[in-house]
Amino acid sequence: MQRVPALFAALKLEVDRRRLPGRFLLTGSSNVLQTPALSDSLAGRMETVRLHPLAQCELQRGPDSSHNRDWPPGFLDALFGRGFESRHTERLGKELMERIVSGGYPAALMRPVGRRRANWYRNYLNAQMERDIPEISRIRSLDVLPRLLRHAAVQTATLFNLSELAAPFQVSRTTIRDYVTLLERVFLLEQLPPWHSNRLKRLIKTPKLHLGDTGLACALLGVDAADLMADRIVLGKLLETFAYQELRRQASWHADPVSFYHFRDRDGAEVDVVLERGTRALAGVEIKAGATVTTADFRALRKLKAAAGIRFSCGVVLYDGETSVRFDDGLYAVPLRLLWELP
Question: Of the candidates 244, 218, 273, which has an alpha carbon nearest to the alpha carbon of residue 103?
Answer without folding.
Answer: 218
